[in-house]
Specification:
By secondary structure, the protein is α/β, with parallel strands linked by helices. It has helices at about 10-20, 35-40, 45-60, 110-130, 205-220, 240-250, 340-355, 385-390, 405-410, 440-450, 455-460, 470-480; strands at about 5, 25-30, 135-140, 140-145, 150, 155-160, 160-165, 170, 185, 200-205, 220-225, 255, 260-265, 270-275, 280-285, 285-290, 290-295, 325-330, 370, 375-380, 395-400, 415-420, 430-435. Strands 3-2-1-7-18 form a five-stranded parallel β-sheet, with helices on one face. Belongs to the class-I pyridine nucleotide-disulfide oxidoreductase family.
Length: about 500
């Protein structure tokens, strides 16, 4: 019987453990943070729970555009909002940013308590699943003391035929902006707050910074977003990023592009962010969203021959193998792609390979990802940059969400569906969706990319009328204009 020892209980670790156990191996998971790892306890699960709460506030603020007028206390009170929906384009060129109804209040302690409890419950659910599958769980820190041996902080040594390193990553700190957990924060400090920040200064406009800027603005905080690049979300589809930045500005977020933070200091009950050009930004709290670093120090990896990259990431191939036979790695500690879905797949691939199962190498070109701003941005496959630089030959079309009938009914005007296909064959190469619940809509495009479906096949597939997904079939018809129904959004 093969013995597997896994260091780290996040998605890469626990998914690997489940695969190993299902294939008859004896599996031990060693974890010091709690099963589910940072993803479940301090990162993905709590952040998206907070964002789900913020979405409710956004929906309330959109109500007047749908003919629903929240009133103040008492009969016959004046509407709490003007009849223009918050976050929607207005006929006026300027005006104050609208906010959710004043008759609705956010109770911060309840919000944060729910976030923490849901994360703990999810961690407990995963641990119970591991126990049902007869996976041994050891709550301790660990380090390699040999190519196939891990010693825990409690003094035990676990020897395995196969070792998997899945220790994740931690928020990156700046020497000039040291988090104190009270006013200068990383995203892992947010859920211990007792209040919604009065004015949150977000340093960093990548995925994490954009998501929290969007969420806290919806929860009523004043938000300033400090971006060192020319636009928010510099690594994403430029058209999608442009939509999000326009929505941010319209909703009252102050976006400071081409502005690099030099330092962050506490000043009394607030913070001051000093920019490299001499300007300063003051706020009640600062959120440092400047990336992450792999948790590979002190694990004894290089001592046993595991090669690390310049940033400290574990070097792996597409089968999750490290430079040491029998030692695999998965998740954010590898730096391959910081997504829970990728970590989980790396862990599964490692176990399938180690236990002799038929397995295909990791294919990043088929990975779908999502940014949980409002609206969301979901992507898969070929990108606009790849097309524009000539790296991939592709045809592309973009269908604005503003002409989708369901979007009109919902009062949504921001967003689009973009599809890329191969010239000639029409094989779907990728897509971008900017819309409410884009994370749910992208699956159909991901299936098309994974299985080589053509735009003709999508165009001849029935979509619900009316539905947001109807814009996906419409985009496919636009890419194949010879289709009789080209340009129409009703497949019937």
């Amino acid at each position: 019987m093969t013995r597997i020892v896994i260091l780290g209980g996040g998605p890469g670790g626990y998914e690997a453990a489940l695969v190993g156990a299902s294939l008859g191996a004896t599996v031990t998971v060693i974890d010091s943070d709690g099963i589910g790892g940072a993803c479940v306890l301090t990162d993905c699960v709590p952040s998206k729970t907070l964002i789900a709460t913020s979405e409710t506030m956004t929906n309330l603020a959109l109500a007047p555009g749908l003919g629903i007028q929240p009133h103040g206390p008492g009969a016959g009170g004046e509407p709490a909002l003007p009849a223009v929906a918050w976050g929607m384009p207005s006929s006026a060129d300027s005006g104050p940013a609208l906010t959710p109804p004043e008759v609705v209040s956010v109770e911060p302690e309840q919000v944060y308590e729910r976030v923490r409890e849901l994360a703990k419950a999810q961690s407990a659910d995963i641990e119970r699943r591991l126990q049902r599958e007869r996976v041994e769980v050891v709550h301790a820190a660990g380090r390699l003391v040999g190519p196939h041996a891990i010693e825990t902080s409690s003094g035990e040594t676990f020897v395995g035929d196969v070792i998997l390193i899945a220790t994740g990553a931690s928020p990156r700190d700046l020497s000039t902006a040291q988090p104190d957990g009270e006013r200068i924060l990383t995203w892992r400090h947010l859920y211990d707050l007792k209040e919604i920040p009065e004015h949150l200064v977000v340093v960093g406009s990548g995925v994490t910074g954009a998501e929290f800027a969007s969420a806290y603005r919806a929860l009523g905080a004043e938000v300033t977003l400090v971006s060192s690049r020319e636009r928010v979300l510099p690594g994403e589809d430029p058209d999608a990023a442009r939509v999000i930045e326009e929505v941010f500005v319209r909703r009252g977020i102050e976006v400071l592009n081409r502005s690099r933070a030099a330092s962050v200091r506490r000043i009394g009950d607030g913070v001051i962010v000093e920019l490299t050009d001499g300007r300063t930004v003051t706020g009640s709290h600062a959120l440092m969203a400047v990336g992450s670093v792999p948790r590979t120090k002190g694990l004894g990896l290089t001592d046993v021959g595991v090669r690390l990259g310049p940033g400290g990431h574990v070097n792996v191939d597409r089968m999750s193998r490290t430079s040491v036979p029998g030692v695999y790695a998965a998740g954010d500690c590898t730096g391959v792609l910081p997504l829970a879905s990728v970590a989980a797949m790396q862990g599964r691939i490692a176990m399938w390979h180690a236990l002799g199962e038929a397995v295909s190498p990791l294919r990043l070109g088929t990975v779908s990802s999502n940014i949980f701003t409002e609206p969301e941005i979901a992507t898969v496959g070929v990108t606009q940059v790849m097309k524009d630089t000539g790296a991939v030959a592709a045809e592309v079309t973009t269908v604005p969400l503003s002409r989708n009938p369901r979007a009109k009914m919902m009062g949504v005007e921001d967003g689009f569906v973009k599809l890329f296909c191969r010239p000639g064959s029409g094989s779907v190469l990728g897509g971008v969706i900017v819309a409410p619940r884009a994370s749910e809509l992208i699956l159909s495009v991901a299936l098309a990319v994974e299985h080589g479906l053509t735009v003709d096949q999508i165009a001849h597939t029935f979509s619900i009328y009316p539905s947001l997904s109807g814009s996906i079939t419409e985009a496919a018809r636009v890419l194949r204009p010879r289709d009789f129904f080209a340009g129409f959004d009703n497949p019937a």
